Amino acid sequence: VLQQQKNLDGYVGFASLPNQVYRKSVKRGFEFTLMVVGESGLGKSTLINSLFLTDLYSTEYPGPSHRIKKTVQVEQSKVLIKEGGVQLLLTIVDTPGFGDAVDNSNCWQPIIDHIDSKFEDYLNSESRVNRRQMPDSRIHCCLYFIAPSGHGLKPLDIEFMKRLHEKVNVIPLIAKADTLTPEECQQFKKQIMREIQEHKIKIYEFPETDDEEENRLVKKIKDKLPLAVVGSNTIIEVNGKRVRGRQYPWGVAEVENSDHCDFTILRDMLIRTHMQDLKDVTNNVHYENYRSRKLAAVTYNGVDNNKAKGQLSTKSPLAQMEEERREHVAKMKKMEMEMEQVFEMKVKEKVQKLKDSEAELQRRHEQMKKNLEAQHKELEEKRRVFEDERSNWELQQRLEQQKMEASRTLEKNKKKGKIF
Amino acid sequence: MASSDVARQPDKGARPLSLAGHVGFDSLPDQLVNKSITQGFCFNILCIGETGIGKSTLMDTLFNTNFENFESSHFEPQVKLRAQTYDLQESNVRLRLTVVNTVGFGDQMNKQESYQPVVDYIDKQFETYLQEELKIKRSLHNYHDSRVHACLYFISPSGHSLKSLDLVTMKKLDSKVNIIPVIAKADTISKSELHKFKIKIMSELVSNGVQIYQFPLDDETVAKVNTTMNGHLPFAVVGSTEEVCVGNKMVKARQYPWGVVQVENEHHCDFVKLREMLICVNMEDLREQTHTRHYELYRRCKLEEMGFKDTDPECKPVSLQQTYEAKRQEFLAELQKREDEMRQVFVQRVKEKEAELKEAERELQGRFEQLKRLHADEKAALEEKKRLLDNDLTSFGNRRTAAALLQPPGFTVNGKKDKDRKKWVELSCLYLMAQYTQALMANFKLFLS
């Protein structure tokens, strides 16, 4: 598309477009699905309640750790919250039982299956002929809770993140950070990030912006990863202020105090600044990966395309079929031409052979005819000669006969004395 | 195109909760807006109208810029569309605007097919988008949307009614694009005439079932102004890029001997209303309607045409995969069938040709046999003749030998009896002489008597 830059000579009015978009989005409302994964007792439910300042988990709706399961379950709670005229349909996906068994091999499988099934649902609704509403129940973000051992990641942590980092935005958190001193926390974070890099795990990355200021903030956050969080449902009075915190004999660990933990960073990042980006990355990257893998499998008839070819085609399955059809037509044409050629050649050969036979026949016929004619002539000649000879001989014989008769008569006459 | 673009229904099964404090997700619209600003906006306008009706001038006036305009002649053999894309910026908002103009619309003698190039263009943009959407590896989020978001239909200021070309064209387009009819060169109609004209136009549109774009009323913020504006449709516009001094300001206007028509004066024409509605208030809605209504309709029709269904004959939902699988099977079967057919045709030809050649061979063989017989016959005849000759020769030989045997000795051609032979010859001669003399005497006697 060739486009040119044009300068406006006056007021047009499309600067209001952002407002129009704002208006429409508020009217539509928002959706967000957040998944929380971690062993029981790491404070997941408390953190969610703290993040959203609401009793998502209460005695009525107990959190995952209170629901003791034998195997890993995937459950979701949907809540509708409103703030400043903005409506948010929030879905929290729990994974009770994760990491709690003695043998935790494959405990991530139900989670992977759940994420894929949401992608599948979206793909199906997107691919319908009649599309009405397309509810987006895809997982936009996965908070992974790391136990505050202070040493490093557990094999389960590494395994889980490796398996999920290409399916969902993974944000690892150090849970119950109030059990670590700042130095311990610092060490722990460094260790974790080292291990994450070592295992090539792709955790959620903050997007680069054109804004210098913003980039500096982003860099600051990046240095603090993974975020160490503390959650609390109780409000305590500290220095005349009512804050959320955990009361200890030795003091109060304040949730929203950035010296105490990274909760505010998490909240700001997750909710106030990057919620939309998490959705966009899910839609543009994770979902598209799932979709292209799924459709490529269909196109090549179930053959594992990733092994067969290095790159996924950019065409739609239908366009792919069109191209295959064209190729097939070309192939058939070629085949047809080849067969035609062979056919023609063989026919020519045969026809030539026939011609040759005919010519040969003709020749032989001529020859025979000549031969016979010659023989005829010869015969005629012979006969003629013979006839001549015979008639000569016969003539001679007659003459002889006559002579003989003459001489006999003569003799007779002599005898009779008639001859003088 | 983010998934949040598609309209959503409120979810059942979600329990409302109250918040104990400020969480901060009220920034979500801002987050979304910031992203759109970074990405930039896109808008595509199609202008349909007769040559010289003022399409380009109006665009220039609306967007306060000088687009490249080509003056077209009235002698275009067919309607063509000319699209031009521009990058505009107003404060921090970047807009990629594509203006599509019809060239030669309404100039031909036979205007029956005039609407077709327009329909084709609109469909082509939908098709391109659909193809991208169906690709395996696609990039929809940075796809340059070329679909037509708004169609300004320029009505001739006859003051009486719509032309049949107008009705036919708008009817063909109303399910494909948001149509905003405007009365062009409104400065040639008086206020009272204009009022009657507008009513006539709207009633004709209604009676002909033409669905024009209605400014949306679902959002309370703008419902009121949109309702009012809906009542002023179609907008009577005047365009001008020239400035005239009115009072102490330079305003966009058209200078006549009898006065100055000010473009931005709402008493003079509806230009400001058009700008307000088209650009300031509903631009985003136009884009959304195009995507969720017109494009979806096109897509649905196209997919149905290609044989896609949402449910199989037993009314069970069919997943995309199943559909693709089924299509693929069908496709492969078709290819196989074609191949088999071709082979069959070939085999048939080969058979036929073989039979032909065999026939020729047989015929040749027949001739050969025939000739052989002929030769044999002739040979036989010849043999017969030879045999006869031989017979004759033998019988002749026999006769000769027999004759020789019968001869008295001396009459053989034996040399021993030569003397006798000589004697006999003498005797024979004498005898002959005697005979001759006798004959003579007889004759003489006869003569004497």
In spatial order, strands of the major sheet of chain B run: 3-4-2-5-6-7
Record field, number of beta strands of chain A: 10
CATH class of the domain at 18-229 and 261-300 in chain A: Alpha Beta
SSE ordering of chain B:
EHEHEEHEHEHHEEEEHHHH
Number of helices of chain B: 10
For the record, the CATH architecture of the domain at 18-229 and 261-300 in chain A stands as: 3-Layer(aba) Sandwich
Residue runs with pLDDT of under 50 for 5 or more positions of chain A = 301-312
Share of β-strand residues of chain B: 5-15%
Characterize the biggest β-sheet of chain A: 6 strands, mixed
Mean pLDDT of chain B: 84
The whole-angstrom Rg of chain A is: 54 Å
Keywords (chain B): Coiled coil, GTP-binding, Nucleotide-binding
GO molecular function (chain B): GTP binding
Domain Septin-type G (chain B): 39-305
Family (chain B): Belongs to the TRAFAC class TrmE-Era-EngA-EngB-Septin-like GTPase superfamily. Septin GTPase family.
Structure characterization notes:
The complex is a heterodimer of chains A (420) and B (449). With 420 residues, chain A is α/β, with parallel strands linked by helices. Chain A has a domain at 18-229 and 261-300: P-loop containing nucleotide triphosphate hydrolases (Rossmann fold), CATH 3.40.50.300. Chain A is built from 10 helices and 10 strands. A 6-stranded mixed sheet of chain A has the order 3-4-2-5-6-7, sandwiched between helices. A 3-stranded antiparallel sheet of chain A has the order 8-9-10, with no helix packed on it. The longest helix of chain A is centred in the last third of the chain and has 100 residues, at 317-416. Chain A is rod-shaped. Chain B has helices spanning 28-39, 55-62, 115-134, 164-173, 191-207, 220-230, 271-281, 283-305, 320-406, 418-448; strands spanning 15-16, 41-48, 80-90, 93-103, 150-155, 179-183, 235-236, 243-246, 249-256, 259-262. Chain B folds into 2 domains: 32-306, Rossmann fold (3-Layer(aba) Sandwich); 313-391. Chain B is elongated and about 185 Å long. Classes of the chains: A alpha/beta (420), B alpha/beta (449). Strand 3 (75-83) of chain A pairs parallel with strand 1 (15-16) of chain B. Chain A: It comes from Xiphophorus couchianus (Monterrey platyfish). Chain A: Residues 318-416 form a coiled coil.
